[in-house]
Amino acid sequence: MGPASRVGQDIQEGGFTLVELLAVIAIAAILAAAAVPSFNRFLIAARVSQGESSLRGAIELARSEAVARSTRVGVCRSATGNDAVPACTQAATGGYGATDWAVGWVVYAKAAANAADAFEANDVVIRRQSALSPQAVGSRVMIWGPSAAPLVFGWNGVRTAGPMGTFGVDFGPAQSAPGPLASESASCVAVNVVGRIDVSRPAGGVCP
Fold first, then answer.
1. Greater confidence, 8 or 189?
2. pLDDT tens digits for 188-200?
């Protein structure tokens, strides 16, 4: 047998048959299908965690800025947070219910001459948060607050106005009215009477 024949024989012996190749593809498909649910749960948990952290961070920022600036600082639900002059939104808009803070929000310092709790001309925008998910998507993050009113802190860091209660953070089919927290990763962000925050998990789809 010549050198060329031996090379050809080695190539044939080292290759895969069609049956072996199809078996490998089938095994890979089964493993991929088994991994999809775990990957989806991971994505949902990440989205809920992002929503919870963003809201919590905004409230904590407002509280610390009120002390640092010695003035009232608010967080208000806003569908126009990225506009040059944002406005607080207290009504349902698009696919977002009236108390769904996932529409976005604004953190702002009140001008001395302005008495209202909502954002007004000459107030200073500290942070803007756009919608956490496009309103057109089938499933998205939802943050159901106790109300849509601005949450305001005084110069001493104590809550002076706005929602007191629990914000429920969840991911699921978009809905315009609050419902039971259904995902495994749902979270509860409670704001007490003075504005302190406590984070917990729901029990039976309900925040404590």
1. 189
2. 999 999 999 999 9
Q: Is residue 173 part of a domain?
A: yes
Angle, alpha carbons 99-107-168 (nearest 5°): 30
Task: State the distance between the two ends of the chain, measured CA to CA, in whole angstroms.
Answer: 82
Q: Is residue 66 part of a domain?
A: yes
Evaluate whether residue 61 is within a structural domain.
yes
* Residues β-bridged to residue 153: 73, 159
Q: How far is CA 77 from the centre of its chain?
A: 14
Q: How far is CA 91 from the centre of its chain?
A: 20
Asked if residue 205 is part of any domain, the answer here is: no
Query: What pTM value is reported for the model?
Result: 0.81
CATH number of domain containing 44: 3.55.40.10
Task: Judge whether 144 and 77 are in contact, CB under 8 Å.
Answer: no
User: What does the pLDDT average to over 97-111?
Assistant: 96
DSSP one-letter string for 38-75: HHHHHHHHHHHHHHHHHHHHHHHHHHHHHHHHTS-EEE
